[in-house]
Write a structure and sequence with these properties.
- With 286 residues, this protein is mostly helical.
- The protein is 57% helix and 0% strand.
- It has helices at residues 3-15, 57-66, 92-102, 110-124, 127-144, 160-175, 177-199, 216-248, 254-268, 272-281.
- Helix 1 (3-15) packs antiparallel against helix 7.
- Residues 27-37 have a biased composition (Low complexity).
């Protein structure tokens, strides 16, 4: 494989945002063949879909926890994308704020992160702007949970363009053209230029300077973390396939499907993993 092709694959993996809340595109099997049409999602509500987002006793209970762990002593990255009057102004700063908060997944339930976002937004923004932030948060989560039909093969450049096209379309369906452009335009532009260069036989953008090799212990830890991500993605993909099978089983009633889905989650996920899996699989809280 030529270095240019390998570089293009690496850029693509970064830009397409694999796995929920920013994981790498590994461990997920990719079907062969041309991509199928993407079904538009239902129209997003004007307000955040989940009730109870206002500051509450639950949010206060989580506040001490948010001050510890991987983000202890830090402030949320990005900004509210609010110019000081009127509505929000589409900006990548709000995506950075969402992603910074979502990086706590695995340490805290998604409901806790959502409650903290609501508490901060309502404390720092006028009500209408806070409502816009929370509604956009809901649409951003739905985008993260979207089951992509077109998968990327890093060693098969012919898969890159259709994968990018699907992601561009779905991002605009979930977020609207203005917010999708604010959140992803730079990544998409860079990636599209790389694809065009490779398809035309031109040299891809120069690779960055090589970094020093990792210390053996750091390399071992990195490999362990990667293995954990791959195992998680396999488990999630298997659970999603099983839920699809249950939904299509004509012999099951709605009550039986619900009970089977609950058993599936209880058997395969524990603790905060179960909360995260429910969010990614589109299941309501128990």
């Amino acid at each position: 494989m030529k270095p240019a092709v390998l570089l293009g694959g690496g850029l693509l993996a970064v830009a397409l945002g694999w796995a929920v809340f920013g994981g790498p595109p590994r461990g997920e099997p990719a079907p062969a063949g041309a991509p199928t049409a993407v079904t538009p999602p239902p129209a997003a509500p004007a307000r955040a879909a989940a009730p109870g987002l206002a500051p509450s006793a639950a949010s206060a209970a989580f506040a001490p926890v948010l001050g510890r762990g991987s983000l202890a002593g830090t402030e949320l990255d990005g900004d509210w994308a609010w110019p000081g009057q009127g509505g929000l102004r589409p900006s990548a700063g709000l995506r950075r704020r969402f992603d910074h908060l979502l990086s706590r997944q695995g340490e805290l339930p998604l409901a806790a992160l959502q409650a903290e976002l609501a508490r901060l937004a309502r404390a720092e923004l006028p009500p209408h702007a806070a409502d816009e932030v929370l509604a956009l948060w809901g649409r951003y989560l739905a985008l993260q949970q979207h089951p992509w039909r077109t998968h990327v093969h890093p060693r098969r450049p012919e898969t890159w363009r259709p994968a990018l096209a699907e992601r561009q379309q779905v991002r605009r369906q979930h977020l609207g053209p203005a917010w999708a452009a604010a959140f992803y335009a730079d990544e998409e532009r860079e990636l599209s230029a790389t694809i065009v260069a490779l398809e035309s036989g031109q040299a891809a953008p120069a690779a960055p300077e090589p970094t020093p090799p990792l210390h053996p212990q750091a390399a071992e830890r990195e490999a362990a973390v990667q293995a954990e991500w791959e195992a998680w993605e396999r488990r999630l993909a298997q659970a999603r396939a099983e839920l699809v099978r249950l939904q299509a089983a004509p012999e099951l009633s709605a009550t039986q499907r619900h009970a089977a889905a609950e058993r599936l989650i209880a058997e395969r996920f524990q603790g905060t993993e179960a909360v995260r899996a429910r969010a990614l699989l589109g299941l309501p809280p128990p």
